[in-house]
User: Fold these one by one.
Assistant:
Number 1:
Amino acid sequence: MSTRFLFLCCLWLNQIAAQTNTLPRLELKALYGSNNLQLDTFYKFHENDSIKFEMFRFYISGITLKQNSVTVGSDSNHAHLLDLSNPHSMQFALPASKNNSHTTKAHNQLEFYLGIDSLTNVSGALEGDLDPTKGMYWTWQSGYINLKLEGVSNLCNTRQHEFQFHLGGYLAPYSALQRIVIDIPNNDTVEINLDIKACIEEINLVKENLVMTPGEAAVRIAAIIAKNFKCQP
Amino acid sequence: MPAMKKIHLVFFILVAFTFGALLHEAPLFIAPKNWPKPVYDLKKNPLSKARINLGRVLFYDPILSRDSTISCNSCHSQYTAFAHVDHALSHGIENRIGTRNAPALLNLAWMPLFMWDGAINHLDMQALAPMSNPLEMDEKIDHVVKKMQRTKIYPTLFYQAYGDSAITGARLLKSISQFMITLVSSNSKYDSVMRHQAQFTKQELNGYQLFKTNCSTCHTEPLFTNNTFQSNGIPVDTSLHDFGRVSMSHASTDSFLYKVPTLRNIEFSAPYMHDGRFKNLTVVLKHYNEGIDTQRVKSIDLKKHIVLTSNEKVDLIAFLLTLTDRHFLFDTSYSYPKKILTNLAKD
């Protein structure tokens, strides 16, 4: 009896270990061109200008793992706050399938949202990464800040040449939430890169350097950032 | 069954009922009969005595402000239905003055949007606005949490409320919501009349008829607000740079629209309007009678001219005074939590 029990326990633990081992991990890297982006570091920008980034934080939510458009894993109720100043926050396990079938199924597509959906935005005070103490919630007007990108460039005619992009807004017509779908290899670690240089080059920092409210500019800049999430093959 | 046994059984049942009644605690929140369903989803924040107590302590604690001088109660006093008596605009730390009038706080479980422009979408998130506003508390919630962690009382209060002493922003905000939800005002003379427990005087009854004809479209019974955003035709105060709901919605049709406030306890919640420009009800009625800029109002009822005689104005005010709820104004369960704090100090 006890031998059979031990055998079943071992089998069960083995199964758990197998499931845990086969879960792919998401590693998100912020780049400046071909280099890893470092905060508080000056980079060459355009011909004769420089740029420094001091903060880069953003939410991703509704992560779904697919194989030929069929969902094999999802944590649609979970939001992750990624913060470049905290390397641990930039990587985590991708969701397992609800029926644990991911252990046997492959994946070739990743879908997620840049930001927080409207339902979560109207759901009151929430814990964890969504806690308002995380500094990603507007106070004068309800709503999560989906992304904060702050830094300094002499192109900005602002106090101390600062630029601040606080992108958010969940109400139509200015919902800044961005859906991102990326083809991914069937690897244990999925590496997603975001080239901030490509993003910032699309923004005219001379004219647009402070976006801190929901609106057309927030939606437009969020879309620029969203399209620059790419999978590292 | 022998008679003696019967007597024992009856006695036992009576004793059981008496003890049952004594042990039975009053519900923490009751939606009055015939009122609409509350907007706030209590399933997502189940009420408990300990959480309400925590919210009540927070409401009265200036720890929420940067220099620990201003509490919620500073601009929301119970004896004025949690409005700010005699102050047109809200007051902040270091004698800073805000841009809007601090409204009465009552029946908030039925309110879908908060602040005069509806910028806040949930009761839980409302307290963040005054806490962070530089003209009010000028503080950050993460810093408030750190300050609370250093106190003696809050880890205990959070332990009592949530089963562990962890202080989080979400717990802090939800606890304030819990106390806010208990602020139900439904025991005015008007309510007694509706429950057939009292009668209006002739003057009040005439005022009620005038109210139903001229005011009730926006100040809809039983909450005395339809929670919409309206312009009531008051001239713009150019010194305040306040454009109303358009600032958050970006829709030009929302220019100079403000939330319709409840009229419950209006006797005590002066001054009136979003900027507190009217000091008493006589001036308010004067505006509705002869001061409305009909070009700027949205409500069809206000586009029609309201014409009230002097006597009718007096009757209407007599009715408005029946909305005063003295039980609410003097309910000790809403007042400064002296007993809770004294008990904590003893531990």
Note: Residues 13-21 of chain A have pLDDT under 50 and may be disordered.
Number 2:
Amino acid sequence: MVAGVLEVDPAEVTDESGPETIPTWTSLRHLQLVVTLEEVYGLSFAFEEIRDVRSVGALRDVLRAKGTVPA
Amino acid sequence: MSAELFALRSRWQAVCRTDRAPVLRIGLLASYTVDPLVPYLGLALHDAGLPATVDVGPFNQVVQQCLAGDGFPATVRPDVLLVAQRLEEAGPAGAGWVEELLAGADAAVAAARRQGALLVYVLPAIPEDRPCGYGDAVDADGVTAAATAARERLRDRLAADPGVLLVDAEEAVRAVGARHAYHPALFRFAKIPYTEEVFAALGATTAGLVRRWYGAAPRALVLDGDALADPAALLPVLRELRAAGLAVTLRAGGPGWWSAEGCPELLPVLDGWATDARPLPAQLAEIAAELDLAPAQLVLVTAAPDAGPGVPGATVRLGADPAGWADALRAARLTDRLPDRRWTGGATVATAAASADPPAGLSLDDFVSSLDVRVAYRPVTADDVPPVAELVARAHDFALCPAPPAGVLAGRAGDLLAVEVRDRLGDYGTGGLVAVRPDGDRWTVDLFSLSCPVLGKGVEAAVLRELADRAAAAGAGEVRVRWTDTGRNGTAARFLSSLDGLGGTPVPVRAVRVDAAGPVAAEPAGALE
């Protein structure tokens, strides 16, 4: 899902991936990623979470804290 | 974003990677971040046989970009210029909305005519923020009343113009439902006012109109006989569509289809068929040729969930239950059309709007002056550093260098000035950051970032004039602005390239381009010269 939103090869995406390592991870795509995750997992990110999440691993942590277990 | 929309976006990405040959150039100019429209509009046009490139212009500079000789329409030279303004960016609710939006619409009409482009103007949705809430409905001067008045003035102004098509954002919001049309984080962080669902609806509507403008409207149905086990369920609606001017045809994978139940009743409504073992695209090509149509003017009607990809034209999927087929086919809006006057070619109606000149009395300088832009400056404290660092990190278009880390900014907080901006349309708060290093007779500006909402208002020049005044008062003889090409700061580069035009400052202001791989602000003064 992350790779699809960011338009990159899934093999390029790791837990350490973030705006600094994926050039297409712009602020716009960041929001689209968050909104997509909200839709898919049926949950909401707080403003602070949207602002502070800076990597795939951090996204996974937020999802896990909200009771979901992303693959 | 639903799985369905995610699939559409993914398919648009795949389309963009193909070696396609665009036949249209689309330019999008909006008072908000309109980028999410690109995949839905681009894909819908692609599926309609009108592959297009889609460019997005600067955020919230509709009038400025349309009036400037080197603005977005003049630079992109689009075949179709889509302009979208929101009432929320047009100042306080009231009669002033009409004037603000008409100024933008007039500028857009003029810009489109200068480029020979079709203008697609998006009528603004009625704002959701209504101070009286339910009471707004009984307030003759309320948000809904003011918005409705502004919308109808725009429609009255533009609907008669043969070079303009109107799309209604309110219809898109209504189709999605207000509860699903907005996401607060999208607007707070990226000035995106609507959800993907709304942009998808706007894209589909816009593509449908553009398609009809270019004469590529659906002209014939192709029933997918292999997937429609009970075609008789469609007979009433097929007769309606045929009476409305659509041809009805059928394809199937072999001649055995004709022995199926329901076929005898279907035969009289068919204008042609291809029932053989050839691949679907070959069958469609033959049907199009027989009807003297382009393949993109065919619409495949099927109940198969995966039929259609790779087929020119649109596909209407009816679902698994034949009882719902007729309603689904009616809902596909295949007989939507433009009013007859739209087909005049746009050259026979002489109105004031037909002029390619800007509206009388409206120039770029006049417009910017009319904004009554006020710029104020305040020192940055240690507590202010995180938010201004966030602003600098996001200000890609107008920046002198790659964004320095927050730690670097914190280390030189004493050099920083926050730029506060407001105009008659609103208060933008902290819209920029500038840093100066006094160095003997020279003041060096090595950090100057402005956020998109304050661009196009003359703020950049106002800031440098202020610095020149301060430098002169401090006894300095020059202000030097050091910048580097970040690959994304074209707006800053264009402004700095024309600094000679600043004029009238008490000390000279010069721009010096330096080549740097790292953040300029992280380097010691003078290290990059």
Note: Chain A touches chain B through 18 residues (CB under 8 Å).
